[in-house]
């Protein structure tokens, strides 16, 4: 009788254990193509260098689908292998190294805005102000009129880009020859070993950057003067049969750099032949000028006609928290004729569709179609196009964009932070329509300073 009782007790315990296993299934895996940089590449400045991939950095992780087949161009740039990963493993490989920094600034807010408690709180939150040291009412002349404003001294937070990726892949553990090109065999995920970068890694990057900036680059400049290289526009294609690159991130990583010394203007033509792209993009790491810069566009036949569902499209569906779908940090970048729509996320409190560096200049955003987003009543979007709150941005051009049909909390179609710089931004001929879900405060165009030029919107 005792043996029978013990047997039944053991079966009950085991049954509970097996039931527990069933209630906690292993996280689902999917097949991906992993693109790995095998060499260090240096920028001219420390800020540029942080935007350039290094040896061991995973540049992209793309699903194994008919839309994403490694191209012949890509096989000459990265080591590419196939593996099965969970979503968490994929995200870990793609983590950027960013840190929150604080800085002090002085800006001005119109009196009627500052003295409205709700509006003041909304502005300070959107500008990531953590503390206000002082606020003094002053009078100033704007367009021959006297206006009253508050001059505010404050401390605010911003994200500092430290390195292209936080984690580096140990390619020696993959069990295959480490070389540029497509790896024939599928790599078991257990062989994918990463480590968090350290200050020693940053020191190594900085040493190589200085060697490039102070030794190699001057020699190249002298050589250019002797040979006299001509201007060259390099046009690459994406999202079509016979494409050069599978997505914008891969193109940007392959083409960013010292474009001035290389005398190269890099253009990506985005097609809609293979459907919408799901790509989180950072354009950063290049030295540019008015002749040599990065440009993302769509050829004439691939452009939207003003309605969603048309033209070359980016639809990012992975959850984001306090991030940006398209972040543009390089001076003189042009981003045009792209449809960006259908975004979904867990939390959109301060996210942007397009975010511009608050210390960058001569960035042009034009002819884009943005929106067609329906989030639940508990979710928010920071702005569809956002220029950083403080900093020294100059000659930012935002014109002839359509921003429409965005249902979320606290939507701002175009947000321009306070700078007090009269040449910081020009916003004109944009159409902003139907930004509302009945909850929170929705704003078409938010100009936080009289110095911005906003007209004909």
For the structure shown, list the relevant keywords.
457 residues, alpha/beta, 28 strands, globular
Describe the protein's architecture and organization.
Helices cover 20% and strands 35% of the residues. With 457 residues, it is α/β, with parallel strands linked by helices. The radius of gyration is 25 Å and the shape is globular.
A few lines on this structure:
The protein has helices spanning 2-23, 46-50, 72-75, 87-93, 111-114, 117-126, 199-227, 248-255, 259-262; strands spanning 29-36, 58-63, 79-86, 97-110, 129-142, 145-163, 167-169, 181-182, 194-196, 232-238, 264-270, 281-283, 294-297, 313-314, 324-328, 334-336, 339-341, 352-356, 364-366, 369-374, 383-387, 396-399, 402-407, 412-416, 425-428, 431-435, 443-447, 453-455.
User: What is the strand content?
Assistant: 35-45%
Class by helix and strand content? Answer: alpha/beta
User: Can you tell me the residue ranges where pLDDT is under 50 for at least 5 consecutive residues?
Assistant: 5-9, 17-22
Helix content: 10-25%
Shape: globular
In total, the number of strands is 28
Gyration radius, rounded: 25 Å
User: How would a textbook summarize the main sheet?
Assistant: 8 strands, parallel
Number of separate helices: 9
End-to-end distance: 87 Å
Strand order of the largest sheet: 10-11-13-16-19-22-25-28
Mean pLDDT: 86
